[in-house]
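Thread: Modeling a multi-component assembly for a lab meeting

Hi all, long-time lurker, first post. My supervisor asked me to bring a structural picture of a complex we are working on to next week's group meeting, and I have zero experience with this. I have the sequence lines for every component (456 residues in total). Could someone generate the structure of the whole assembly? Inputs are pasted exactly as I received them:
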Amino acid sequence: MSNFVTHLSQDFNNLGVIFMDTNFDKKNFIENFKHNCNRVQIKKFLKGETVTTYIEKRNQICIVISGEIDLIRYDFNGNKTIIGHFVDDDVFGEAFYPANTNNELFAIARKNSEVLFFNYDSLFTKCKRNCDFHKTLTNSLSELFLDQIISLNLRIELLTKRNIRGKILSYFELLSKSTLHRTFILPYSYTDLADYLSVDRSAMMRELKLLIDEGFIKKNGNKITLLY
Amino acid sequence: MSNFVTHLSQDFNNLGVIFMDTNFDKKNFIENFKHNCNRVQIKKFLKGETVTTYIEKRNQICIVISGEIDLIRYDFNGNKTIIGHFVDDDVFGEAFYPANTNNELFAIARKNSEVLFFNYDSLFTKCKRNCDFHKTLTNSLSELFLDQIISLNLRIELLTKRNIRGKILSYFELLSKSTLHRTFILPYSYTDLADYLSVDRSAMMRELKLLIDEGFIKKNGNKITLLY
DNA sequence: AAAAAACTGTTGCAAAAGCAACAAAAATCA
DNA sequence: TGATTTTTGTTGCTTTTGCAACAGTTTTTT
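Re: Modeling a multi-component assembly
Sure thing. I ran the full set together rather than chain by chain. Output:
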C-alpha cells in the first residue's frame, strides 16, 4: 500500500510501543508474568468497584490486564479530578506516587476489569528464588515504565495548554491520531472528560458549542469529527 | 530526636529515592554508568545553551549529572511553557515523548550543566558485547524511570489544581517538604514559575499578593515562608 | 415498566485569569 | 562603572472560566 498508510501505522504503533526496533511485546510479557511468577496476584473488578486506594501501599504496582481504571482525587471542596485513566497494559499504583501527598487517591474500575498486582520490592528479593521468569523481568519492567512516562508526558502536554479550547483540541487530536481517523468516539462521558481536562463541565460544553459554530468540529452524541 | 523529625526525614528521602528498603544508590549508579559503559557520552553546557531538541532522536535518553535543564515548548502564539525542569539524576529525552507531537521541544541549560547521553536501543544490542556493567543496568534504569514517573505524577498533581492559588500552594508545599523547612528559596524566577505552573505571570503575582495580605505566606525576594 | 439516577445542554451572573502596559528594581554585560 | 537587559510589582480593562440552577434525555436500577 501507499507510504502514507505505512507511515500512519507506524505512528499508531508508536503511541503504544514506541520502539519499532526493539522487539518487546508487552502483551506477551504480561501473559508470561501472570503465569510464571508466583508473586503476582490477579483480581477481577466490576464496574464501579474500588480497585485500590493509595494509602500505605508504598510498593504496590498494578497492571491493567483488561478493562479501564480511573485514578481519582477528591479535593477538600469535593471537586473530583480524574488524575489518570488506565487501559490495557498500563501500569499504576502507589509506588508511582511520592509518600505523603495530602490527597486521597482512589483507583476505580470504569468498566469490568482485570488487574494484576505485585509488590515491587518482593520482585527483587523473595521472588528471585522462586521465579525463573525473573531474569527478563526487570528489562521488561523498564519498557513498561518507559511507556508510562510517555503517556504521562502526553497528559502534561494537555494540562499545560492555556485555555479550554487548547485542551479540548489537543485531546481530540490525540484521539484522532491513535484511531487513525478524523472521526472517533469519546472514551469518556462529557462529565468525565471535563474532570479529565480539569475544567468546569459547563464551560467545556460552551466551548464545544463554539467550536461547532465556528466549523472546527462536528459532534453527534459522543462521536466527534475534526473538520480542519 | 522526636518522632516528628524522623518522620519528616523519611518523607524527604522518599521524594528522591522512595524505597527505603531497596538499596539502590542513584548517584553511585550514574557514576558507574559513566565510567564503565562505552556507549555513553558526557557533555558540558553553559547556561542558556541548547542541550538537545526533540526532533528525530527517537531513542535518546539523557541524565542530568549536574546543573539544571528546562524542557521548553513554544506554541504557535509564542507562548512559552516550561514542560519540565530537570535536576541532578533526572532523566529526560525524546525517548520519553510520543512520536509526532506537533510541538517543538527544546532542552535548555538553565545553569552550567553536565549531561550524560545514551541511546536506549544500543544498550540492549551493541552494548551487550562491550560493557560489563550491562547486567545491572536495566535494573537500575527501571529505578530511574520509576523516579521519573513519580515526579511526573507530582507535576500532574500541580497542573490539575483548579486555580492559580491551588497551584501556587501545592508547589510551595512541595518545596517545603523537600527542604524540610517552612521557609525556602524558589528555584525559579517568578517569570519562570508562572511558565512552569502554566499561568499568566501578572495573575500569579496578584494571587501571591493576596496570599500575603491574607496572611498565608510571607515573601522576601525569592524567599517564601509558609505561615499556616 | 416505572422510578431513580446520571448525563446533557443551556443560561445569567460572578469570579478568576489573561492581556497590555509601564515604572522601578535587579541582574547582566561590555 | 555605566549601559543594557531582564525581572518585579502593579493596575485597569477584557475575556475566559467557574458556579448554580434547571429542564430535557438517557441510562440504570428495582
